[in-house]
Amino acid sequence: MTVKLRFFASLREKLGDGESLALPEGSSVASAREALLARGGLHAEALASSRTVRAALNQKMCAESALLSDGDELAFFPPVTGG
């Protein structure tokens, strides 16, 4: 299956607007993040497990355990604060 990735805020600055990612059926948000980490380089730096990164699946906040389907849009972004 293929999901469309989107990156926002500081992640967009490092990784660009987004890309497509091929994953096995039954993959989760955590699986997608792990696949990106395995690429090394900027992906590993930006999405390191030591960094807090939020995810949205089809424009709704989700847990890393959320399962993906073919054609889904998965967005990664850093936590947002305001004042």
From TrEMBL:
<dbReference type="InterPro" id="IPR003749">
    <property type="entry name" value="ThiS/MoaD-like"/>
</dbReference>
<dbReference type="Pfam" id="PF02597">
    <property type="entry name" value="ThiS"/>
</dbReference>
<comment type="similarity">
    <text>Belongs to the MoaD family.</text>
</comment>
<protein>
    <recommendedName>
        <fullName>Molybdopterin synthase sulfur carrier subunit</fullName>
    </recommendedName>
</protein>
<keyword id="KW-0547">Nucleotide-binding</keyword>
<dbReference type="InterPro" id="IPR044672">
    <property type="entry name" value="MOCS2A"/>
</dbReference>
<dbReference type="InterPro" id="IPR016155">
    <property type="entry name" value="Mopterin_synth/thiamin_S_b"/>
</dbReference>
<dbReference type="InterPro" id="IPR012675">
    <property type="entry name" value="Beta-grasp_dom_sf"/>
</dbReference>
